[in-house]
Structures are given as C-alpha cells and as structure tokens.
C-alpha cells in the first residue's frame, strides 16, 4: 500500500509538472512557422540582417587561405558561351547581375566565396543536359547549386565555375496515395513538399531546419539527415529512384517507383551523397509514410550527459515504435538561443540546467501514445534521469520547443564567427569531445554541443567574436584526429564540401578511398563537375582535358615550359601538401605568388632586416620535375638576381642542396630558408674573384668564380654551376665536376605485371637491397653509396605496395610467389643470370624464398634480422601465433583489412614512423586486450643519434602518399604463403648465407629465437651459414650503417671477381 501510495503521489506530481508551465508558455510569441524559417535560412535576408556588427571573413578559393589552385585545363567563359546559353534558356534565365551573383557565390556560412560570372536557371532535364553537354565540350567547369544552404562550402564555386541552379524545376510530377510515393523535380523546396504531403495526409521522411530554402535535389545529393532520421531512416532507404544528368549531358533515368528491384547495380545510391560530383539530380522518387494523428513533444532537463544517454536507452526500450525524434543541447546552446533570438523563452526557467532533451513521439492513437509517454517520463523522473520537464499541450507549444532546437544555428551565426563540425560518434563518446575542446580552447572561444542523440550525430560548434587562425589551429586537425581515434565519421550529414574534401582519410580506409579515387568515377564525370575532389586532390596531376571547341589556355611562361614533362601523381600530391603547409606556416620573408601553374612556383623573397639585403625584394622561380621530390627542383632567381658570391647573373644559385645534396625530405620551404640563410650570412655583397669554386664546409654552400659568360649564356635550366667547365687557361674542367661514379638515380621498371620504383648507383656485379616493414628503398641510403663506391651495381627497389611502386589492392597479390617473381623480373631486366641479395625484415623473407624457389639465380644471400624457419606442417602461421600470443600480437591485428589502417589514421604519419622504426627491446609487440598495437607502442620523446627528423619525414611523406595497405598486405598473405610453400616443406637453403642480427632486436629476444639462431637447427637448415650479432636493434642497417656495410662488403669479397 505504501508503495502504491508513493507511486500515486509521484504521478500526481508529474501531472502537476506537465501543466504548471502553461502560464508562462502562453506568453510565448506566436509566429508563422513558414515565415520564421525563411527568415532564418534565406541567405540573402540573413546576410542583410547581420549588418555591420559581425564582419564577414570570406575565404576566396583563389587566395592563399585555401589550398587549391584553378586547373589551367579548364576554359574561361567568353561572349560566344553567353550567346549560346541565352539562345538555349532565354535571357531571363542567364543571370549576370552582380548583386544576384554576389549571393550565389557566397555560401550560407559566409565562409567561402567564389567568383562565378554566370548563373544558369534551366527549366527542364533537357535544358540541363544541353548545358552540361556544351560545358563538357568546352571544358567549362560547372557547380550545381540548390538552395545554397550547405555548411561545408560544397554549393558555391571554387573559382569561376558556371553555377547551374535547378530551382526553376519545382514541379510535383505525381503522388500515389495508395503507395505514398512522391515523384517531383529536384528544385522543389523541402517545406513546400512537406506542406503538400500534409494536405494529402502524408509526411515527408526528411525534415531540416533549412527546409524553407533547401531543395530536394540538394538534399539527395548531400544525403541530408535531419530531425526524423531516428524514425524514418536515411535517404538511402526512402529514395526509390532518381533522374540525373552526367557531365557529358547523358541522362540517367533511374526514376523507379518500385520497392523491390534486383536487376543489376542500384546506381541511384552512388548519387545519394555524391555532392554533385557525379552529375546533377533532376528528379526524385521518394517513399512517404502516412501522417499519424498523434504527435507529442516533451522538453526535458538532465543534470549530466550520462543521464541523457540513459534516457535515450529508456526511450528506445519503452517508447519503441512511436519514438520519432530524440534531440539534445547543452546549456551553452540554450544560453545562445535565449540571448540571440527574439521571442524565444526557456520552457524550464526555474533553474539553469546542464542539458536539455527534446523528445517527439508520433502514433495513431492519442490516448495510448500520451499515456505511454507519461509513463516513460514518470519512470525516468523516478530514476533520477530527468530533473525537470514539460509536455507540450498544443501545436504552438510544440512549435516553440522545436524553435529552440532549430534556432541554434541562427543564434550561433548572430553571436559572431562560428566553426562548425558535423560528426558521427558512438553515443557514449559524443560529449567527451565537447569537454576536451573546452579544455583545449580555454577562454579563446565558446564551445557548444548539440545534435541528434538518437542517431549519434554531434553538431560541435565553436563560437568566437571573429575568425582567428589561432583558434582554428587549436581545433584542426585535433577534432578530426579525435573523431578518427574513436571510430567516428567527420561528416555525419553535411557532406565534405571544400571544407573536408581532403580530410576523408580520417573516416575512410585506404581501400575504400582507392575505390572512390577519381579515376574510378571517370565514367560519370569528366572532371568539370568534380570540383570537390578534382581541385583538392589535383586529379590525375592536372591532366590535360582537351576541349572540342577550343584549345586549353597556355599557362607556361617560357618556351622551355611547353616541353616540360607533366608532373607525376606523386609529385602533384606532394606539391598539394606543400601548398597546404605553406599557407598554414609560410617561411618568414617569403610570399608565394599564386598562379594557375602547379609545376612552376614564383616566390617573392624579402631580404632579412639587419643584413646586406635588407629592404630588397627578389623573385625566385621554382620549376618542378616530373618525379619531384625524388628529383630536385630547378631554382633560379629571376632578373635582377641578388649580387652575391654564390649567385650567377642569370639567377642560377650555387647551393649544394639543389644538386648533389638534394634529399626527398626537403621541401620548397626548406630551400627558401637555406637561400635566406645564404643571403643573411654573407659579409660581402658582390662577386669573389676566385678562379675555381671553393667549398665552404661551414655553410655547406659553394662559392663561385667571376661570372663565366659562356655558362651564363648557354647553361640549360637546372644545370648545376658546379658542372660548368672553366674557360680559363688550358680549358681544364672544374674540380667539382661529377666524378666517375654515378650518383643515385631513380626509375620505374615493369616486372611481373607491375611497376617497381628502384634507386640504383654504381657499376659492377649486381647487388639487390630488399627492405622490410614499414620501410622503403631509403632504408638502404647508407649502403647504396658505400657498395657502389666499392665497385658494385647496387639496386634498391621499393617493394610492391610501398613507396613509388605499384600497390595491388588484394592481399592475395602479396604472396611469396609474387614477391619472388618481382625480384626475378628485376634480374631479367638487368640481364643478369645471378645477383647478390641483401634482405631485411620482409626483404629477408623474400631472400629466403628466393633461395628456396630459384637458387640458380642467387650468388649469395645476406639477410638481416629475420632468420629462416622451416614450414610447420601442422598449423598455419597466423593460427599458431594467435593461439600463442592472442589477438594483441601485431601480426594478428594486421590480418583484418582496414583495421590497422583505421588505427594508424589516429596519428600523423611521422608519429607512426617513429613508433615502428624506433622500436627497442623494451617495447612489446603484443598489445593488451582491447588495445591496438599502434596505440600501445610509445612515441620516443627524443630521437636516437642514428636517424634525423628529416630522414623520418622521408618515410612519412611516402607512406602518406601510398598509404599503409600495400605494406600491411604482406602480413595478410601469410596463411596463403603457408599453403603455397607446402612443396618446399623440409627444404634447405643451399646458397652461401651471412645472417646479421641486432643483440637488442625485439625479435631476437622473443621465444627462444636467440637460442635458435645460435644453435644447430638453424645451421642444419642453412648449411653454408655465417652468423654475426651486432650491438643494435631491429632496423640494423640504419642504426649501424658502417658496420652493416662493411659486413656486407666482406661477404661479397669472398666471391671471385667477375
């Protein structure tokens, strides 16, 4: 009885709570909902209402604030183009008015601004097709635009693209009341569709705060989520069909109205969320549910985020099928809405609450649904999950609750500058990011968290009085790294746009990205519409698109430029990265002059204060070779060049790093810093009267003689002044000409069906150097020159999947059969019947199997770190180590495609390199349960003396370009190798072998390996074996370069000279 009485009293208290808010709710300002949304989300009206109080800081895409350049292959608009479009569409649908263009060039956030000179408004699919067919033939870039309410810069031009707006295509084609299927044109405004369906007794499955301006075509193209996703799912489930026009003008008719159709690929899903990169959506078929008669909305308060989570769990359990929305906002969001929006009142004014939750239910029986909701609220209050709450009594109160939630974006914009992030995260982790950002930013900005808790979508917003790069540096890339670390998505519903196009790797695995590579999409888009990807990723190294009606504009500025080879994809990716880094942190005293030519940079140089060149300004011209950064760029001063002992009058610079001492780790920034240091350290402003070049060992630069007229007049671009013959008496060559031994060169060789990049040097017997994981040819940088100087032809390939070599997608392409086949192909290429092989780590594994499969091709083998083990006939290798060490072993974790890649993505590439390359015997390659090995490995606080930050960066840069999948696939083929090598069970290695291992190698200390290497079993399997143990760790050839080089040479010298 006491329990029943307490329950009854609590129920009466709850009903009192639900009704006592009515007195002040009746004072709420009533507003016309449609008009309200138009005011909030119409970019024109909203931009005007901001006035001068909040200055807008546009980011022009062509400025240094954005890391993109206009593709010179795109044509520019001319009068003939305008005439064509006017003839097609009529003058009123070809907009050139500056005020109108100002609006459509500017995104809703006022963050990005293009410079389009033309807005086209087609009225039919046929007109859209004619527009795109013409633009494709002319190579005129196009950007589709709907209501322009996007938040990531995807709906406005990057530069001067033609804007195609389908807003005039706004007809409802059909509606079937039996099936609830609506067919309409893409330009229909979402709120108009909601109103139409409401009159028909149906509901639009999509509802957004921007519904007064956004268009259904744009909603589909961005896969908009919205407020009803909890109940009705995403557009991938409700869109039944669509019609789209490809970039070449072809019309794809996928406008089906069937719920089931299993005939071939369902191509419509490619267009949902493609952000206009594949084509322009012109018509949509969408399934709409019947409107339910019972709608209830509760606005609740919670003390902490944990209570919000538990409330969501209870709502799913107890409200079940009637739960249609579950939104949350924090106190910061509520405070902004109350202070920035007129007529908004707090439904729970008695006290300040930490969190607020809006719950909506929809059903068919009012009394049942309300009773069910009240019972849920009662139990939640009893359980302490709700600290306060109110249940809407009519439509006006319901609208006032939604006004608070939907008004947050408007309040943020009115408060000043806002940095918006749309993230998907596990619900239990969502608000941790908000807390972390508050700690990280401190008093710099206000951090606001709100979103769709029901589907794990956090809207993280940082509000400040004005945009500040210092704030942005604190936010990015931290927010993306945090999201990736917790296996979230950096774009839940807003899309990538320009804001996040080059951040996709935080959410997508390398395999997925390779499938989504622009080359895979060329069947749909000839680049004129793929601006989100084409500019950010510098698609196909700015490959030449050949317009039918007009040749592409010439962007080269010299006669020699036209013959210059096109940049490789690797070079383009590297230069794009350097552009980004330059814009974030440009070297002091230098300014990059933006042009349309990625292959040639012009950089303004300002003499440093307090030096002989203070207040003087010069220009550097940097031309990049096809295989940059493996080859040095050509760097000269444009006329007039500085008067300096190390600079010829034609601008050529005597700086060692531009020639023999060039390293792929160097960048344009590092070159500039070296040049500025050279100028600043000069004590003589002029030419030193020396006959020959003299090495200045302290500065690492070269002094030059008086100007050599022949050199100045006849030297080809990029030639080193050190190679110039002196014209003094006797015509003797300069003491700094190239020696007889060739420098390290690079090429790509076709072998075994793929292309391998190799570094080579020297002449003589062939020595192959095979690297391991995670390594490149660069791991052998010390040994290459050493062995070449002693009369050997040294070749160090990037093994398949690594560096600049091809990387097949499938793990089955990385079996030992493939890897050995690659090396045999190299021998055939060099027409060598036999070679010496030196292998480390995985390179050692390849070496052992070369000796097993083709001993006739190997003179001798020097293997490092990994000994030879006979095949265990009873169990596959991965199964064996899994049983022995568990899933925490790095080999086991590497088996699942994508797992390690996602884990690695939580760190920058340099950190990943440090974690693996600097591993010591104190580390452990077995992670604790529930932890990834990359998280478990420590990052050394300081580097060991055998490697520099610049050298590590070489590895990091290459893996950033290639990804880790290829290298990880070696591990994923281990069980396949076990199957393939069955015929060699019990075979011995009969060629002469020298095995080097580090005393401190983590593998040498593991499970009896030391005893095995020093015991009889190893020698019985490798009869002609010599073992050398050095004081080193795993990456022995880099840690002890001189010792390893000498050990290799001593082994080679045992063989008779050819």
Automatic annotation (TrEMBL):
Q: Which cofactor does it need?
A: FAD
Function, please?
Epoxide hydrolase involved in the biosynthesis of cucurbitacin and mogroside tetracyclic triterpene natural products (e.g. siamenoside I and mogrosides IV, V and VI). Cucurbitacins have cytotoxic properties and exhibit deterrent taste as a defense barrier against herbivores. Mogrosides are nonsugar highly oxygenated compounds used as high-intensity zero-calorie sweeteners; they also possess pharmacological properties such as regulating immunity, lowering blood sugar and lipid levels, protecting the liver, and acting as antioxidants and antitumor agents. Accepts the ubiquitin from the E1 complex and catalyzes its covalent attachment to other proteins.
Q: Where is the active site?
A: 654
Q: Where is the UBC core domain?
A: 570-720
Known PANTHER family for this protein?
Answer: D-2-HYDROXYGLUTARATE DEHYDROGENASE, MITOCHONDRIAL (PTHR43716:SF1)
One Pfam match, given by its short name, reads: FAD-oxidase_C
Instruction: Enumerate the residue ranges of region (Disordered).
Output: 714-737
Please tell me whether the keyword Transferase is annotated for this protein. Answer: yes
What this protein catalyses is:
an epoxide + H2O = an ethanediol; (24S)-24,25-epoxycucurbitadienol + H2O = (24R)-24,25-dihydroxycucurbitadienol
In this protein, which residues make up the domain named FAD-binding PCMH-type? Answer: 112-291
The GO terms this record gives for MF are: ATP binding; epoxide hydrolase activity; FAD binding; oxidoreductase activity; transferase activity
Q: Species name for this entry?
A: Corchorus capsularis (Jute)
Q: What name does UniProt use for this protein?
A: Ubiquitin-conjugating enzyme, E2
Keywords from UniProt, A to Z, are: ATP-binding, FAD, Flavoprotein, Hydrolase, Nucleotide-binding, Oxidoreductase, Transferase, Ubl conjugation pathway
Q: In which pathway does it act?
A: Secondary metabolite biosynthesis; terpenoid biosynthesis
Family, according to the entry, reads as follows: Belongs to the AB hydrolase superfamily. Epoxide hydrolase family.
Q: Does the keyword Flavoprotein apply?
A: yes
Return the Gene3D superfamilies for the record. Answer: 3.30.465.10, 3.30.70.2190, 3.30.70.2740, alpha/beta hydrolase (3.40.50.1820), Ubiquitin Conjugating Enzyme (3.10.110.10), Uridine Diphospho-n-acetylenolpyruvylglucosamine Reductase, domain 2 (3.30.43.10)
Q: What is the lineage of its organism?
A: Eukaryota, Viridiplantae, Streptophyta, Embryophyta, Tracheophyta
Cellular component aspect of the GO annotation: mitochondrion
Superkingdom, according to UniProt?
Eukaryota
């Amino acid at each position: 009885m006491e329990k029943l009485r307490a329950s009854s009293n609590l129920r009466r208290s709850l009903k009192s709570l639900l009704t006592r808010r009515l007195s002040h709710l009746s004072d709420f300002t009533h507003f016309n909902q449609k008009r309200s949304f138009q005011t909030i989300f119409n970019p024109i009206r909203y931009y005007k209402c901001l006035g001068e109080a909040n200055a807008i800081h546009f980011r022009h895409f062509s400025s240094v604030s954005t890391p993109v350049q206009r593709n010179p292959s795109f044509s520019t608009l001319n009068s003939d183009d305008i005439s064509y479009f006017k003839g097609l569409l009529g003058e009123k649908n070809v907009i050139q008015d500056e005020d109108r263009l100002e609006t459509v060039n500017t995104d809703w956030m006022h963050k990005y601004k293009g410079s389009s000179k033309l807005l086209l408004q087609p009225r039919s699919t046929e007109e859209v097709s004619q527009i795109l067919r013409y633009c494709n033939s002319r190579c005129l870039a196009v950007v589709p635009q709907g209501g322009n309410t996007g938040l990531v810069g995807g709906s406005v031009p990057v530069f001067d693209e033609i804007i195609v707006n389908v807003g005039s295509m706004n007809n409802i084609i059909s509606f079937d009341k039996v099936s609830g299927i609506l067919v309409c044109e893409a330009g229909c405004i979402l709120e108009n569709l909601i109103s139409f369906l409401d009159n028909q007794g149906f509901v639009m499955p999509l509802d957004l705060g921007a519904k007064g301006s956004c268009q259904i075509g744009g909603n589909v193209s961005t896969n908009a989520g919205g407020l009803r996703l909890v109940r009705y799912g995403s557009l991938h489930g409700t869109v039944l069909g669509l019609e789209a026009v490809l970039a070449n003008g072809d019309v794809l008719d996928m406008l089906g109205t069937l719920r089931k159709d299993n005939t071939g690929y369902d191509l419509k899903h490619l267009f949902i969320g493609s952000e206009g990169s594949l084509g322009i959506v012109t018509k949509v078929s969408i399934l709409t549910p019947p409107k339910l008669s019972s709608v209830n909305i509760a606005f609740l308060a919670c003390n902490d985020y944990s209570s919000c989570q538990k409330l969501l769990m209870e709502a799913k359990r107890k409200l079940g099928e009637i739960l249609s929305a579950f939104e949350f906002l924090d106190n910061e969001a509520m405070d902004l809405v109350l202070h920035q929006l007129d007529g908004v009142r707090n439904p729970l004014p008695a006290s300040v609450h930490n969190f607020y939750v809006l719950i909506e239910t929809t059903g068919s029986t009012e009394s049942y649904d309300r009773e069910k909701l009240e019972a849920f609220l009662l139990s939640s209050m009893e359980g302490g999950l709700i600290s306060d709450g109110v249940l809407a009594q009519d439509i006006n109160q319901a609208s006032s609750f939604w006004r608070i939630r939907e008004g947050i974006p408007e309040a943020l914009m009115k408060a000043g500058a806002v940095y918006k992030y749309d993230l998907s995260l596990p619900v239990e982790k969502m608000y941790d990011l908000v807390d972390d950002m508050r700690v990280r930013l401190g008093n710099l900005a206000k951090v606001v968290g709100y979103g769709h808790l029901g589907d794990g979508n956090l809207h993280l917003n940082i509000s400040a009085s004005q945009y500040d790069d210092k704030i942005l540096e604190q936010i990015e890339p931290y927010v993306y790294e945090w999201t990736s670390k917790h296996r979230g998505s950096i774009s839940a519903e807003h899309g990538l746009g320009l804001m996040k196009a080059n951040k996709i790797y935080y959410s997508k695995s390398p395999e997925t990205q390779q499938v989504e590579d622009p080359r895979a999409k060329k069947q749909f888009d000839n680049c004129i519409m793929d601006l989100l990807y084409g500019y950010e990723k510098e698609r196909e190294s700015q490959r030449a698109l050949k317009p039918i009606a007009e040749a592409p504009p010439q962007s080269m500025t010299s006669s020699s430029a036209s013959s210059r080879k096109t940049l490789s994809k690797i070079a383009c990716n590297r230069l794009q990265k350097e552009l980004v880094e330059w814009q974030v942190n440009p070297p002091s005293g230098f300014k990059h002059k933006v042009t349309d030519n990625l292959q040639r940079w012009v950089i303004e140089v300002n003499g440093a204060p307090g030096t002989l060149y203070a207040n003087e300004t010069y220009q550097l011209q940097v031309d990049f070779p096809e295989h940059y950064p493996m080859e040095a760029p050509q760097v000269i001063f444009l006329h007039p060049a500085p008067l300096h002992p190390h600079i010829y009058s034609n601008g050529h610079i005597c700086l060692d790093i531009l020639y023999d001492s060039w390293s792929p780790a160097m960048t344009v920034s590092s070159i500039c810093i070296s040049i500025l240091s050279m100028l600043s350290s000069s004590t003589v402003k002029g030419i030193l009267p020396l006959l020959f070049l003299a090495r200045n060992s302290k500065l690492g630069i070269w002094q030059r003689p008086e100007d050599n007229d022949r050199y100045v007049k006849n030297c080809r671009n990029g030639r080193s002044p050190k190679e110039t013959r002196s014209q003094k008496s006797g015509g003797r060559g300069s003491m700094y000409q190239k020696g007889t031994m060739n420098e390290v060169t690079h090429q790509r060789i076709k072998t075994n069906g793929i292309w391998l990049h190799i570094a080579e040097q020297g002449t003589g017997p062939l020595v192959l150097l095979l690297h391991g994981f995670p390594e490149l040819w660069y791991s052998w940088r010390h040994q290459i020159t050493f062995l070449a100087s002693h009369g050997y032809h040294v070749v160090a390939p990037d093994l398949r999947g690594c560096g600049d070599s091809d990387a097949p997608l499938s793990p089955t392409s990385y079996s030992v059969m493939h890897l050995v086949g690659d090396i045999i192909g190299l021998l055939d290429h060099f027409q060598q019947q036999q070679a010496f092989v030196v292998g480390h780590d995985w390179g050692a594994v390849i070496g052992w199997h070369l000796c097993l499969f083709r001993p006739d091709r190997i003179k001798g083998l020097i293997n490092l770190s990994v000994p030879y083990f006979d095949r265990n006939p009873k169990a596959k290798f991965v199964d064996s180590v899994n049983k022995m060490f568990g899933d925490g072993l790095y080999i086991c974790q590497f088996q699942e495609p994508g797992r390690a890649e996602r884990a690695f993505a939580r760190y920058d590439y340099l950190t990943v390199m440090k974690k693996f390359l600097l591993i010591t015997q104190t580390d452990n390659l077995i992670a604790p349960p529930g932890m990834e090995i990359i998280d478990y490995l420590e990052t050394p606080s300081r580097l060991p003396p055998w490697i520099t930050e610049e050298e590590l960066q070489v590895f990091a840069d290459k893996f950033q370009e290639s990804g880790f999948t290829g290298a990880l696939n070696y591990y994923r083929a281990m069980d396949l190798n076990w199957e393939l090598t069955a015929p060699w069970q019990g075979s011995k290695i009969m060629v002469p072998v020298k095995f080097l291992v580090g005393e401190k190698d983590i593998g040498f200390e593991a499970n009896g390996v030391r005893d095995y290497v020093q015991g009889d079993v190893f020698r019985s399997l490798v009869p002609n074996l010599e073992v050398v143990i050095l004081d080193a760790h795993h990456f022995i050839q880099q840690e002890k370069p001189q010792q390893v080089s000498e050990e290799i040479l001593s082994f080679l010298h045992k063989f008779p000279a050819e």
